[in-house]
Amino acid sequence: MSDYVKLDDVTLAYGDVVAVPNLSFEIGKGELIALLGPSGCGKTTTMRAIAGLMGLASGSIHIDGRDVTNLPPSKREVGLVFQSYALFPHLSVYENVAFGLKMRGEKNIKPKVEAAIESVGLSQFANRLTPDLSGGQQQRVSLARSLVVEPKVLLLDEPLSNLDARLRLEMQMVLKDIQKRTGVTMIFVTHDQSEALALADRIVLMKDGKIVQSGLAEDMYNAPETRFAADFFGFENILPGEDGRERAWRPNAIRLGEGPYEGRIRGMSFGGDYRTYVIETDRGQIKGAVAADLPAYAEGETVRFDLPMAQAVALQAG
Ligand SMILES: Nc1ncnc2c1ncn2[C@@H]1O[C@H](COP(=O)(O)OP(=O)(O)OP(=O)(O)O)[C@@H](O)[C@H]1O
Questions:
Q1: pLDDT tens across 142-184, in order?
Q2: pLDDT grade for 86, boundaries at 50, 70 and 90
Q3: Distances (CA, A) of 258 to 254, 255, 265, 283, 306
Q4: Residue-range definition of the domain harbouring residue 304
Q5: With a 6 A CB cut-off, is 44 part of the ligand 1 pocket?
Q6: Can you give the CATH number for the domain in which 279 is found?
Q7: What pLDDT was estimated at residue 158?
Q8: Is the domain of 189 the same as that of 83?
Q9: Could you report how far apart the first and last alpha carbons of the chain are, in Å?
Q10: 42 lines ligand 1 (CB under 6 A)
Q11: Which domain of life is it from (predicted)?
Q12: What is the ipTM of this complex?
């Protein structure tokens, strides 16, 4: 079902200020979607509306065919995982995870709670108090607590932003694994394009409360349609073409050492496998990346370069 979660012409406002105007999108059952965009573009506001934490100025939200627009959060069958873990510090991992089921008055909850704790890899910590866990582990408790009530949709707001690089990777794997095993539909918010690319099946890119582009992660990475999307996905060179259309190149698509253009090396940053040069040219600044095992250019040196058309992405206005 491609419209398992459906936002139809949703407008969200804080008082008189519209944060998200007329937003529509659909999500399929079992999809893992990233809402991506810079700070203030309306990602969190959109999540809050899906969760029922914020009323709609207009429009509707459906989940699994049911109109949830006017339902309170507890009736929407939506789970929420925030960057701050909001765990009960005086309760154990087990008790934290069991909480939602107890509140619902469910009996015989032990197998469900244990399965949820196991699914996030924390079985050996079940009896530990949550303040005695690492940030990454607390995040996993938070995830297990949301999963145990078997939500139709799991909403994650910047779920990895408090974690260091290694834990992020670990958590990404936990999330993907959970999606695969439970088939739960997930929507997560991030401002980090690499995180969106690593995790999401599909990316919805937002700017100023509107969708700029949405599509499969790979398509978004390879074929951004606008200057904004290109810039967001690391096409750092955006130049006007002779036909009036802008074209964009990644730094590693710029050929240095030969070509019809000339510039002066202004600076260099070492990136391990490659060096990225900032080159001053009469078309503006260009960034070009070159494998680090090739000889380095010196600052002030004049270099020839090419902007290969085969590696350019043509952009639409906007
Ligand atoms: N409580 C509030 N009152 C008034 N305006 C708000 C409130 N919360 C958010 N906004 C405004 O709504 C817009 C969208 O904010 P939102 O938090 O949804 O953005 P975001 O994309 O999630 O940003 P971030 O990544 O920084 O969390 C912004 O212009 C913001 O200033």
A1: 999 999 989 999 999 888 777 788 888 888 888 888 888 889 9
A2: confident
A3: 10, 7, 14, 17, 7
A4: 228-314
A5: yes
A6: 2.40.50.140
A7: 86
A8: yes
A9: 32
A10: yes
A11: Bacteria
A12: 0.94
